[in-house]
Amino acid sequence: MTDALCSRSPVPTLERLLADLVPPPRFADARLETYVPDPRFPSQEQAKERIGRFAQGLGRSSSGGGLLSRLRRSRPAAARGLYLDGGFGVGKTHLLTSLFHIAPGHRVYGTFVEYTHLVGALGFTRAVDVLADSTLLAIDEFELDDPGDTLLMTRLIRELSDRGVSIVATSNTLPEALGEGRFAAQDFLREIQSMSERFEVLRIDGEDYRRRGGSLEVPAVREEDVLAHAAAEPGATLDAFEDLLGHLTQVHPSRYGAMIDDISAVHLTGVRTLSHHHDALRLVVLIDRLYDREIPVLASGIDLEHLYADELLRSGYRKKYFRSLSRIGSLARDGAELLAAAPRPE
After folding, report:
1. Domains (range + CATH), the chain
2. Percent of the chain with pLDDT strictly greater than 70
3. How far apart are CA 261 and CA 245, in angstroms?
4. Residue 187 pLDDT
5. From the centroid of its chain, how far is CA 13?
6. What order do you get walking across the sheet with 81-86 strand by strand?
7. How far lies 177's CA from each of 85, 142, 218, in Å?
8. Of 266, 316, 269, 306, nearest to 287 (Cα)?
9. Secretion signal: which residues (predicted)?
10. CA-to-CA distance for 230 and 237, rounded, in angstroms?
């Protein structure tokens, strides 16, 4: 019987949460040498060079062995970090993971939602103690969606940078604009400004590299083909889209990575356009985790370019949705190639 995402409700252990604080499989081999800047956008080469210089300065202690030097090392100066701002598909995550791989000492990597969940599991004080031994804290997809996350993450960044941890984050939004269009950001302006003062902002311009070879529009697969391929593909899952949306309300987004462990391909039937943020934002997180794991998607229903309604694409979350469309298009193309390579029944 084919597995289903709807049958999976993982509860990762604390050990699993900590072990997952590394780059995902898609970026396991990412290095500065393999980042190819688009020559039309000089900021990409500039960001690559700045990341390299930043890596060289990580973990350096004060020179000299006198008492004053030792006292200074026992109370490190507040660290300044980097904030990689730019549109989706310009290579921010590639640069972030490249930095992780060459950084000295202990370093941790996670998405915004993974860190918020870790703090929830450990408690704030213990989370700070656990992360404070790191040379580098890498935060991918920094996007504040609610006031509680704003307060939590700005405080976490302040506490860790005060302990000398260098923090590097990627986002589609400049620090001073976080929360814009989603909640009353002006009510939290002091916290946002305090956080943004800890970063040197690197603006990375460019086009979505996933579209450099042309459009990623992938038409829906016939439902009978989705069903047949799911039944024949080892390690595949098969879910009705409506059932999956309901299941995602019961699983915390930080557990979506564990939910797709050991899956070879995801198959969905009856995909429709989403018009409500609460469904769409959860699906964005799932698509991000599928993309991280390079798991192909085969879907019937609408063409995936119409996954999010126009009003969502005009909202304060529009950058998330456009990134998600780019990523699900890439995964659907992988799914189409998988289907084309499957043996045909006699």
Report:
1. 14-207 (3.40.50.300), 211-341 (no CATH)
2. 82
3. 19
4. 45
5. 21
6. 107-111, 136-140, 166-171, 81-86, 199-204
7. 11, 12, 33
8. 266
9. none
10. 7
Q: What is the mean pLDDT of the chain?
A: 85
Position with higher pLDDT, 39 vs 197: 39
Query: What's phi and psi for 202, nearest 5 deg?
Result: -110, 110
Q: What is the pTM of this model?
A: 0.84
Question: Coil, strand or helix: which one is 316?
Answer: coil
Q: Taking 80 as the threshold, does the pLDDT of residue 312 lie above it? A: yes
**Spatial separation of the C-alpha atoms in residues 315 and 196, rounded to whole Å:** 23
Long-range CB pairs of 222-228, under 8 A, 24+ apart, other chains included: 222/300, 223/269, 223/270, 223/300, 223/301, 225/298, 225/300, 225/339, 226/267, 226/268, 226/269, 226/298, 226/299, 226/300, 227/267, 227/269
Residue 265 DSSP label: E
- Per-residue tokens: 173: 């939004």
Tell me the C-alpha distance between 177 and 195, whole Å: 12
Concatenated DSSP letters of 195-250: HHTTEEEEEE----GGGTTS----PPPPHHHHHHHHHHSTTEEEEEHHHHHHHHTT
Question: pLDDT for 222-237, tens place per residue?
Answer: 999 999 999 999 999 9
Of 85-99, 131-145, 205-219, where does mean pLDDT reach its minimum? 205-219
Give the phi and the psi of residue 19 in degrees, each rounded to 5.
Answer: -65, -25
DSSP annotation of 173: S
Which position has the token pair 């290579």?
Answer: 91
pLDDT in tens, 169-183: 888 654 444 444 443
**What share of the chain in percent tops pLDDT 90?**
62
Q: Residue 344: how many CA atoms within 13 Å on its side-chain side?
A: 2
